[in-house]
Design a protein that fits this description.
InterPro entries: YjiS-like. The protein has helices at about 5-15, 25-50, 55-60, 65-75, 80-100. The protein is mainly α.
Length: about 100
């Protein structure tokens, strides 16, 4: 069998498999989506509480009040801002270790 025939067979299997998902598979997908939504909302609440910290504590975390406000403003209500905040803090820590100026 040639490679093209295998690819063609593979595409046909995917096309017929997609619409015939079972109820259990759909419920499993819904449960995964609800779980990720719950985590995103929990992390959003935690990020909101960061805005209540004073500047010294935020600086210890590698963040500033402006960073927290900007990330919360840019992300939607159901988006998870924790990854962006962690990325900002990590970048600021790396700059500090290299001796570069941190804002």
């Amino acid at each position: 069998m040639r490679t093209n025939d295998r690819i063609f067979d593979f595409d046909l299997d995917l096309a017929t498999e997609r619409p015939n998902r079972t109820l259990a598979a759909r419920l499993y997908q819904l449960a995964g989506w609800l779980g990720s939504l719950r985590v995103a909302l929990r992390n959003r609440l935690a990020a909101n509480s960061l805005a209540d910290l004073d500047e010294r504590l935020l600086n210890d975390l590698g963040l500033s009040r402006g960073d927290v406000r900007d990330v919360l403003r840019r992300h939607g209500l159901t988006d998870d801002p924790s990854l962006q905040l962690a990325r900002l803090a990590r970048r600021r820590a790396e700059r500090s270790i290299r001796g570069q100026r941190t804002d």
